[in-house]
Amino acid sequence: MKKADLQRYESRLKDRLNELTHRLEEIEEDLDEPADQDAEERATEREGDEVLESLGQAGLAEIKMIQSALSRIEEGEYGECVSCGEPISTERLDVVPHTPLCRNCA
User: Fold this and answer.
1) Alpha-carbon span 103 to 106, nearest angstrom
2) Local confidence pLDDT in tens for the 106 residues of the chain
3) Which residues pair with 82 in a beta bridge?
4) Residue 87's beta-bridge partner residues?
5) 5 near 90, Cβ under 8 Å?
6) In this structure, what are the phi and psi dihedrals at residue 85, rounded to the nearest 5 degrees?
7) With a threshold of 0.85, does the pTM exceed it?
8) Contact assessment for residue 63 and residue 20, using Cβ atoms and an 8 Å cutoff
9) CA dihedral 98, 103, 104, 106 (to 10 degrees)
10) How many CA atoms lie within 13 A of 50 on its CB side?
11) Are the CB atoms for 81 and 100 separated by under 8 Å?
12) What is the 3-state secondary structure (H, E, C) of 75-100?
């Protein structure tokens, strides 16, 4: 992979990591807010908290994948499928830059 392409993917991954980290901090702040005293409001808040927790879990999973991709960049293995060792297409990396798998292994 060309150095310029690698730097572009690394930049995109770091930007996304910062975005997710900021979003997770906001979710944590929202979840830490004191509950409303009204029973109906508490039920609505509980539903909202469940959605926020789900988003937080998805965000954490993506963060782990991004961190793994950044490690592969440092190790010189980025863009290679971790399963079969074949190159991951740039088309796939353009869509999902943190993917560890080629299209055939995904």
Assistant:
1) 5
2) 899 999 999 999 999 999 999 988 887 777 666 666 665 666 566 666 666 676 778 888 999 999 999 999 999 999 999 999 999 999 999 999 999 999 999 9
3) none
4) 80
5) yes
6) 85, -5
7) no
8) yes
9) 50
10) 5
11) yes
12) HCCCCECCCCCCECCHHHHHHCCCCC
User: CA angle, 60 as apex, 54 and 64 as ends, to 5°?
Assistant: 150
What is the C-alpha separation between 92 and 100, in angstroms, rounded?
10
Sign of CA dihedral 25, 74, 68, 1: positive
**What is residue 20's three-state secondary structure?**
helix
**Residue 80 DSSP class:** B
DSSP tag of 87? B
Across 1-106, the runs of DSSP E, i.e. the strands, are none
What whole-number distance in Å separates Cα of residue 105 and Cα of residue 85?
Answer: 10
